[in-house]
Design goal:
The protein has 316 residues and is α/β, with parallel strands linked by helices. It has a domain of 208 residues: NAD(P)-binding Rossmann-like Domain (Rossmann fold, 3-Layer(aba) Sandwich). 39% of the residues lie in helices and 15% in strands. Strand 4, helix 4 and strand 5 form a beta-alpha-beta unit. The structure holds NADP nicotinamide-adenine-dinucleotide phosphate (NAP). InterPro entries: DUF1731, Epimerase_deHydtase, NAD(P)-bd_dom_sf, SDR39U1.
Length: 316
């Protein structure tokens, strides 16, 4: 992975208090950027993974050994829902759900049982919570979570994160849900698989191209999580999206411009559905206009609020 240059992406001065942060799924795309940012801010990170290793504990160890001493916990674990190599079967859907809900529940239960519960507990979910619309604007207070598979998955994850009211952690541990949009970065998410067709001049909008595409640079998603951990007063839901609204067509044009390639060939909806299955294809063919109102009110300053500079940074 290339080095992350935090002076550009992290507008916050390192805090004085060092935190011990537990990061579920810290080996992944977002987790690697978050871990790098937290360490560069002087914090200590322990990763929770399916596989043991230095600086890690496993999910199997948590229920038996309990929560290791920590000041904050974050969960990013989950089977990659958009993996085009996996067919959209009932078995894969179960894997996608269980990998998120079970890990979240294991961590929430360990927090609830901890003698010294952490000060903060952050779960990353998705903006698929909000029903797709080309016109309705959503913010963190908008209703949702019961529209389709992906929105119900967010509801199930957020329910699994709840700390029981009669536990030691109730009233001690601050809970935050970050609902992320499409995460853009060089080392994961959708961009790496799009580069080849776009470089060959075969890229273009997906479906009609008019669908909204809520997105965020991976450095800003990591930045929002670090900001939440360090601010000590943020609670509840924050939308992890950039403050600018873009459609899928805007995205194709901006990616083509950053690569200096034409983007005239659309990817038809029937092909998307053939590759991903219609229940998953909808995540690419439809989208919601999501505003990060509470994220901005919390004082977070984006390093990449606009799409063009975000893509140029990723491709530089
Ligand atoms: N990437 C995006 O565009 C995007 C958009 C919206 C929301 N999100 C959410 O943000 C979180 C982090 O995203 P990401 O892109 O960083 O995820 P990722 O890289 O695909 O996966 C994160 C980690 O999850 C663990 N994992 C994978 N499959 C698992 C399974 N079957 N059971 C248990 N753990 C499993 C892996 O850690 P180990 O191998 O170490 O166990 C992996 O490194 C995810 O929950 C995702 O839903 C991502």
């Amino acid at each position: 992975m290339r080095d992350v240059q935090w002076p550009v992406c992290n507008p916050f001065p390192p805090p004085e208090a060092v935190m011990r942060v537990l990061v579920g799924g810290g080996t992944g795309f977002v987790g690697r950027t978050l871990t790098s940012l937290l360490k560069s801010n002087g914090h200590e990170v322990t990763i929770i993974s399916r596989n043991p290793g230095p600086g890690r504990i496993t999910w199997q160890e948590l229920p038996s050994k309990g929560l290791p001493p920590c000041d904050a916990a974050v969960n990013l674990a989950g089977e990659n829902i958009m993996n085009p190599l996996r067919r959209w079967t009932e078995e894969f859907k179960k894997e996608v759900t269980n990998s998120r809900v079970d890990t979240t529940q294991i961590l929430a239960r360990a927090i609830a049982r901890a003698e010294k519960p952490p000060e903060a507990w952050v779960l990353v979910t998705g903006v698929s919570f909000y029903a797709p619309s080309e016109t309705v604007e959503y913010d963190e207070d908008s209703a949702g979570g019961n529209y389709d598979f992906a929105s119900r998955l967010v509801t199930a994850m957020e329910a699994a994160a709840r700390i029981p009211g009669d536990s030691a952690a109730a009233g001690v541990t601050r809970g935050v849900m970050v609902r992320a949009g499409f995460v853009l970065g060089r080392d994961g998410g959708a961009i790496p698989s799009m580069l080849l067709p776009f470089r060959l001049g075969l890229g273009g909008p997906i479906g009609s191209g008019c669908q909204n595409l809520p997105w965020i640079h991976v450095a800003d998603l990591a930045g929002i999580i670090a900001h939440v951990l360090e601010s000590k007063n943020v609670t509840g839901v924050l939308n992890g999206v950039a403050p600018s609204f873009n459609t899928n067509r805007d995205f194709a044009r901006a990616l083509g411009a950053a690569l200096r390639r034409p983007t005239i060939l659309p990817l038809p909806a029937f092909m998307v559905n053939a590759i991903f299955g219609s229940e998953r294809g909808v995540m690419l063919l439809e989208g919601a206009k999501v505003r990060p109102r509470r994220t901005l009110e919390s004082g977070y300053r984006y390093a990449f609020p606009e799409l063009g500079p975000a893509l140029r940074d990723i491709l530089s």
